[in-house]
């Protein structure tokens, strides 16, 4: 391949990469989470995970009386890793609020997840989930994130997002004020 086609290919790849990053982190306002709009009004039992364990293997029950921030991710997932610093900032903002619970969920085993989060320095509540996801939370794409209250999905996003942005904080603050 001569030099000109290589340069053209490189430019195209750079543009595609830039578009992917832009779309992941800087979506136009009309594509972002609609503040306060209920995405799904599924019955309570259909959005809560069973068979949930902490990274030490202890069973954990989701706190259904709290606002829930649930993120499904994997260590090998590039977009998941891109959004994790924003999730950490969001968690840091709300970690002492007793009305909200964070669940950062992976299907990977603790032997894979634990060294990864230690290396990255994340201090998030990581959990393992084994079993089929409830229909309202099922999907084959990651990352996927849900904000849930009283069995209703208040907001959801498939793909990487900037979770510490003002509209997400406003949505969470509004929901917490109503609890």
UniProtKB/TrEMBL annotation:
It comes from Dyadobacter luticola. PANTHER family: THIOL:DISULFIDE INTERCHANGE PROTEIN DSBE. It is found in: Cell envelope. GO terms for biological process: cytochrome complex assembly. Pfam families: Redoxin. GO terms for cellular component: cell envelope. Keywords: Cytochrome c-type biogenesis, Disulfide bond, Redox-active center. The keyword GTP-binding does not apply. This is TlpA family protein disulfide reductase. One of its GO terms (molecular function) is oxidoreductase activity. InterPro entries: Redoxin (IPR013740), Thioredoxin-like_sf (IPR036249), Thioredoxin_CS (IPR017937), Thioredoxin_domain (IPR013766), Thioredoxin_ResA/DsbE_sf (IPR050553). Residues 14-177 form the Thioredoxin domain.
